């Protein structure tokens, strides 16, 4: 029964009645304790045996097993124990098979387990409430056995687990509840066992895991809740296990994951996690081949920072991004914003910093904010073309998205580049889709495809480059001039050009005729004869079309 989850206060009444422990030991006093919530409503009343602290000290000194389950213990302190037996302050005190399940510890100053050496087969604090006063396990060590803090609860004081060494056994804090004091695991060590911080409720105090080391075991904070102003996971070595922060509510405090390290190829999962109005930093993380999953996470208006991060891939799919996100990573194979909604700034522009990014997936993104990205500096073409799991249609839509972003921010050169590749991939996708159609349908489409490819793309880059259209005009005139020159004879002639002229003279005269025909000037001194009566109108139509094409491209440049 999770009776301590929302304990705010409690009251104690010591009764002069016996209390029988599970091992048959009879205690001469009983503590009747009432637990209340924040509204002073009663949660539960429970009876505990009053276990004398001096008796615990005697058991420790004799090296015996200690079981104080279902007991009320006041002013327990290993510092006081060492003072009583004249031991050095840094002396490691051995506690054999220490069991304190469903107990209550309180102190006027501090419940002190500092420098304890827990030995034997187990250590069990499950269901225990640490009441008034601070709590410290500073520099304690646990053997290679299960350590249980399941469903423990902690009052207003600070909880100190600094420099604690959990060796290779499983460590379980599931369903623990901390009130408003600070919680510190600074420089703690977790071995190869499973580390469980699932469904923990941290109060309004700060939470600090700075410099903590994990080995090969998996770590989970699934469904935990943070409420403090400062949540620090910086400079942690997460080892080789899977790291699970799914469905975690980080509250509105600042969240620091700077310079964390992960060995091997692991997953760091933040799926469906909630990030509040505080800033979240993943600066300078070194995650190697590891994968970061933020799919379906909730982001408030705090800044998310991946500056100088080294990670294999980051997925922020199906999210509402109403916060500023700095994606100026140092090295990353892929970043995915698939099907997310951008309502603030997403920054990919490296500026003067180094940035190595192989792929960027913007499939299905709705952009109602700004995506800071540079076509050349970010190698946008490669970022999209390198995608292996997206269709031609998806790639086309991503170029269209970026085209609109560049237009809205006045980066017209980049807009033109994005538009060109949008049209190219759109055409490729249409062509690919027709591969499944009938032969006749494909046969009808291919001339249209060729026309779009040659005229729209090659000749003018989809009306984005007027100079390319001019070049195309010159090339077309030249080709028609060559055609007139090579096929000029008695039957196919131009009235102003004599067949007796040399080939070079014919070419230059044909070039003049080609120009006046192309531009539909028509001075009247040159009339096509024979087959050229068909060729000349075709050239004239081509001229009208290309001049119109040039006008569109030129005006588009000028108006912008």
Strand-helix topology:
Blueprint: E1 9-15, E2 19-20, E3 26-27, E4 30-36, E5 42-50, H1 53-61, E6 65-67, E7 71-74, H2 78-84, E8 93-99, E9 104-106, E10 110-112, E11 116-119, E12 123-124, E13 129-130, E14 134-136, E15 141-142, E16 147-148, E17 153-154, E18 159-160, E19 165-166, E20 171-172, E21 177-178, E22 183-184, E23 189-190, E24 195-196, E25 207-208, E26 213-214, E27 219-220, E28 230-232, E29 243-244, E30 254-256, E31 267-269, E32 274-275, E33 280-281, E34 291-293, E35 298-299, E36 304-305, E37 310-315, E38 320-321, E39 325-326, E40 331-336, E41 341-342, E42 345-347, E43 356-361, E44 366-367, E45 370-372, H3 380-385, H4 392-408, H5 412-434, H6 439-458, H7 466-486, H8 503-518, H9 532-559
Parallel strand pairs: 5-7, 6-8, 7-9, 8-11, 9-13, 10-14, 11-15, 12-16, 13-17, 14-18, 15-19, 16-20, 17-21, 18-22, 19-23, 20-24, 22-25, 23-26, 24-27, 25-28, 27-29, 28-30, 29-31, 30-33, 31-34, 32-35, 33-36, 34-37, 35-38, 36-39, 37-40, 38-41, 39-42, 40-43, 41-44, 42-45
Antiparallel strand pairs: 1-4, 2-3, 4-5
Main sheet summary: 12 strands, parallel
Q: How large is the radius of gyration?
A: 38 Å
How many strands in all? 45
Distance between the termini: 69 Å
Estimated share of beta-strand residues: 15-25%
Count, helices: 9
Average pLDDT number: 91
The strand order across the widest sheet is 10-14-18-22-25-28-30-33-36-39-42-45
Number of domains: 3
Helical coverage, percent range: 25-40%
Structural class: alpha/beta
Name the shape in a single word: rod-shaped
Show unreliable segments. 1-5
């Amino acid at each position: 029964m999770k009776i301590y989850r929302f304990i705010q206060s409690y009251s104690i009444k010591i009764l002069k009645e016996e209390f029988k422990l599970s091992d048959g030991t009879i205690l001469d006093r009983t503590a009747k304790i009432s637990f209340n919530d924040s509204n002073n409503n009663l949660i539960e009343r429970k009876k505990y045996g009053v276990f004398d602290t001096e008796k615990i000290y005697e058991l420790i000194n004799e090296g015996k097993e200690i079981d104080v389950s279902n007991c009320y213990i006041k002013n327990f302190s290993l510092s006081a124990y060492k003072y009583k037996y004249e031991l050095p302050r840094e002396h490691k005190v051995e506690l054999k098979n220490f069991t304190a399940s469903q107990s209550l510890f309180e102190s006027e100053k501090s419940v002190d387990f500092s420098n304890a050496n827990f030995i034997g087969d187990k250590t069990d604090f499950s269901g225990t409430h640490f009441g008034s006063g601070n709590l410290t396990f500073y520099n304690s060590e646990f053997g290679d056995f299960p350590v249980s803090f399941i469903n423990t609860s902690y009052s207003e004081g600070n909880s100190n687990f600094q420099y604690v060494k959990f060796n290779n056994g499983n460590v379980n804090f599931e369903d623990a509840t901390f009130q408003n004091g600070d919680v510190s695991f600074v420089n703690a060590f977790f071995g190869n066992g499973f580390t469980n911080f699932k469904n923990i409720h941290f109060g309004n105090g700060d939470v600090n895991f700075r410099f903590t080391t994990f080995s090969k075991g998996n770590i989970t904070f699934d469904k935990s809740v943070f409420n403090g102003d400062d949540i620090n996971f910086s400079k942690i070595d997460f080892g080789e296990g899977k790291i699970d922060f799914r469905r975690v509510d980080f509250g509105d405090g600042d969240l620091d994951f700077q310079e964390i390290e992960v060995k091997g190829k692991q997953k760091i999962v933040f799926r469906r996690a909630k990030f509040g109005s505080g800033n979240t930093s993943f600066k300078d993380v070194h995650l190697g081949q590891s994968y970061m999953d933020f799919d379906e996470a909730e982001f408030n208006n705090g800044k998310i920072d991946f500056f100088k991060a080294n990670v294999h891939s980051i997925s922020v799919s199906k999210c509402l991004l109403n916060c500023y996100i700095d994606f100026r990573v140092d090295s990353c194979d892929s970043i995915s914003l698939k099907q997310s909604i951008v309502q603030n700034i997403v920054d990919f522009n490296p500026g003067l910093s180094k940035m190595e990014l192989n792929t960027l997936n913007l499939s299905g993104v709705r952009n109602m904010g700004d995506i800071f990205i540079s076509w050349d500096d970010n190698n946008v073409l490669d970022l999209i073309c390198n995608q292996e799991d997206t269709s031609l249609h998806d790639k086309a839509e991503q170029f269209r998205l970026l085209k609109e972003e560049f237009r809205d921010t006045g980066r017209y050169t980049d807009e033109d580049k994005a538009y060109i590749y949008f049209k190219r991939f759109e055409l490729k996708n249409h062509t690919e889709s027709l591969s499944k159609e009938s032969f006749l349908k494909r046969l009808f489409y291919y001339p249209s495809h060729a026309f779009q490819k040659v005229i729209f793309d090659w000749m003018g880059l989809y009306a984005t480059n007027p100079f390319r259209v001019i070049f195309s005009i010159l090339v077309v005139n030249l080709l028609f001039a060559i055609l007139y020159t090579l096929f000029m004879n008695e039957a196919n002639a131009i009235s102003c050009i004599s067949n007796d002229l040399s080939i070079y003279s014919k070419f230059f005269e044909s070039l003049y005729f080609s120009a006046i025909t192309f531009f539909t000037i028509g001075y009247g001194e040159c009339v096509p004869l024979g087959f050229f009566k068909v060729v000349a109108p075709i050239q004239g139509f081509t001229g009208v079309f290309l001049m119109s094409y040039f006008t569109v491209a030129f005006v588009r440049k000028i108006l912008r």
